[in-house]
Amino acid sequence: MKEVIISELGKLVGLKLQDAGRASNLFWLGFGDIIQIIRRGKTQESAEYALHIQCSWRITSNNKIVVASRDFYSPSSEWDGETEDFDWDIQGSNRFDERIKTFIKDKGQLKVKKIESDEVSGLKIFLSDAYILEVFPDSSEDDEQSEHWRFFNRKNNSPHFVATGMGIEKI
Questions:
Q1: What residue ranges in 54-130 does DSSP mark as E strands?
Q2: Distance CA 153, CA 122 (A)
Q3: Pairing assessment for the beta strands 131-136 and 56-61 based on DSSP bridges
Q4: CA distance 129 to 13
Q5: Host H or E run for residue 31
């Protein structure tokens, strides 16, 4: 499995990290050239390649965690604690939103240097400036609903390359 993953995600080597963000607790990253796509009837600019992650992950640099998956559920530094309930899913309210904004501020400056994988679809994406994105599936579920991450090309509209508890699928 790891050779197949490295071959597929190897398309990212040399490409720029253009953007990153979230949709609820799905972490997405965009790599490559900025292209025009039509989404819901509207033309938008987006990176050519997308990586959507739905398992545990972290971005490190120089032996320090810069931002990680559990940051979704922690308040940003601006939260005063007076609000009765912290709602992590409001854009801009959590630590992830705060940290990813800082990380990606110089978007287009980081490039993918190398891809590594393991036998359970874990990933290491080495970026310039000593950043590493580590993706580690953290569930033993092995059904079609157990998606860990997916990779796809928006420009070619090719099948999605999906890592699940059942292995690799092209959808």
A1: 56-61, 64-68, 112-117, 123-127
A2: 20
A3: antiparallel
A4: 15
A5: strand 26-39
What string of pLDDT tens digits covers the 171 residues of the chain?
Answer: 899 999 999 999 999 999 999 999 999 999 999 999 888 899 999 999 999 999 999 999 999 999 999 999 999 988 877 666 788 999 999 999 999 998 998 666 899 999 999 999 999 999 999 999 999 999 888 876 789 999 999 998 889 999 998 899 999
Token pair, residue 109, equals 């400056």
Q: Give the single-character DSSP code of 90.
A: S
The kind and range of the H/E element at 97 are helix 95-103
Determine phi and psi for 43, rounding to 5 degrees: -80, 130
Q: How far apart are CA 11 and CA 14, in angstroms?
A: 8
The pTM score is 0.93
Residues 6+ apart with CB under 8 A from 39: 46
